Amino acid sequence: MKSCQPRKEVRSTDHQKMIIVGNAIKDAEVKQSEGKTTYADFTVAVSRTKDQTTFPPMRVFGKLAETSENIKKGVKVFVEGRLDISEYTDKEGQKRITFRILADTYRLL
Predict the structure, then answer these.
(1) pTM, whole model, 2 decimals?
(2) DSSP state letters, the chain
């Protein structure tokens, strides 16, 4: 029986993909950064059970952000993207960690 080992010419790369399906809890907010990049933020309610709902924040950039005015409160949306985790220090000097999904694409359902 042969050993199951990866071939040497194949390189391992990390990959991350998040898929979220849920209802927008408010209309998407379209903004521009100081560098004139258009982005939009919205939050989706994702229910696992009747009593378990999470609210992951989403951000889209560029052309996706420009068309995100279609994301209205209550609309079901399918989002594909990656997890972005940031650290910052608050006014009291405490380290805080935030996360959001940086969407590569979204589709209204």
Answers:
(1) 0.79
(2) -------TTPPP-----EEEEEEESS--EEEE-TT--EEEEEEEEEEEETTEEE--EEEEEHHHHHTGGG--TT-EEEEEEEEEEEEEE-TTS-EEEEEEEEEEEEEE-
Q: Which CATH superfamily is domain 18-108 in?
A: Nucleic acid-binding proteins (2.40.50.140)
Sole residue written with tokens 């949306």: 77
Instruction: Please write the tens of the pLDDT for every residue from 54-97.
Output: 999 999 999 999 999 999 999 999 999 999 999 999 999 999 99
Mean predicted confidence (pLDDT) in 97-107: 95
Q: What is the pLDDT of residue 60?
A: 96
